[in-house]
Automatic annotation (TrEMBL):
Domain of life: Bacteria
Organism: Rugosimonospora acidiphila
InterPro entries found in the cross-reference section: DDAH-like (IPR033199)
Protein name from the UniProt record: Amidinotransferase
Family as reported in the entry's similarity comment: Belongs to the DDAH family.
Keyword set includes Hydrolase: yes
Keywords, sorted A to Z: Hydrolase
Length: 264
């Protein structure tokens, strides 16, 4: 089925600071290549019949391309992001303003939350990560605002600092895919209990951001380097679509990070 996505062109993309272990400002970034890879991702969505909307990138905000962090939108209600690090703080109001202008009911967050980086909606639950970015207080805030049962999940590996780097909502028969090692023992047991048919991935697939994927329940757009996950998806009846996001990965992001789902 058709989805609506908000994206932000990586016009000002750079790796100028380090707020996750993937970011090394001494590694050169090919800004032109980043734009080409991002454009290909947007084109894939359009080819699949999805709607891509755009927010104007702002100079001085190199991570603004990671639209998933900009807000959380469920049933037309928007919870604004409140970023943990000052380097990204100005993105929160920029995204919230876009939604306000587009006529959405917007809510300013009280607690630190980094949008769909840590808040992922399944059919039954709102999965909510914490440990590196999003404050656990935001979990209760999201539950109250959206009226969806929130399941808190504890992230333990700094390489997988956002929930959307460690878990992907697939929909369909498996419901989710995740890297068990990225979660605390208790959270692993919660995931096993809630999602007995989930796909569990190995670390090499997760390290190329294979879990930073965007699924419409059938077609799954994911980094082409995640070869193990691609074949497992196929085996389970999904249609994997590979995309190369190597430049954006230098900032610690993949296809899902560049994509904010707008659920009206
Ligand atoms: N450099 C960005 C940060 O560390 C990357 C954000 C990736 N986004 C995501 N949804 N995981 O904040």
């Amino acid at each position: 089925m058709s989805r609506r996505y908000l994206m932000c062109r990586p016009t000002y993309f750079a790796v100028d600071y380090t707020i996750n272990p993937w970011m090394d400002p001494s590694t050169p970034v090919d800004a032109e290549l980043a734009i080409r890879q991002w454009t290909e991702l947007a084109d894939i969505y359009r080819d699949l019949g999805h709607t891509v909307e755009l927010i104007e990138p702002l100079p001085g905000l190199p991570d603004m391309v990671f639209a998933a962090n900009g807000a959380t939108v469920i049933d037309g209600t928007v919870l604004g992001a409140q970023f943990k690090y000052p380097e990204r703080a100005a993105e929160g109001p920029a995204y919230l303003e876009w939604f306000a202008r587009a006529g959405f009911a917007t809510h300013q967050a009280k607690f630190v939350n980094e949008g769909e980086g840590d808040l992922l909606l399944t059919e039954r639950f709102l999965l909510a990560g914490t440990g590196f970015r999003t404050d656990p207080g935001a979990h209760g805030e999201a539950q109250e605002l959206f009226g969806r049962p929130v399941i808190g999940l504890q992230l333990v590996d700094p390489s997988f600092y956002h929930l959307d780097t460690a878990l992907c909502v697939l929909g369909g028969p498996a419901e989710v895919a995740y890297l068990p090692e990225a979660f605390s023992a208790g959270s692993r047991r919660v995931l096993a209990r809630l999602f007995p048919d989930a796909i569990t991935v190995d670390e090499p697939d997760a390290r190329v951001f294979g879990l930073n994927a965007v699924s419409d329940g059938q077609r799954v757009v994911l980094p082409v380097q995640a070869v193990g996950l691609m074949s497992e998806l196929e085996r389970r009846g999904y249609r994997p679509i590979g995309v190369d996001m190597s430049e954006l990965r230098k900032a610690g992001g993949g296809p899902k990070c560049c994509t904010l789902e707008v659920r009206v």
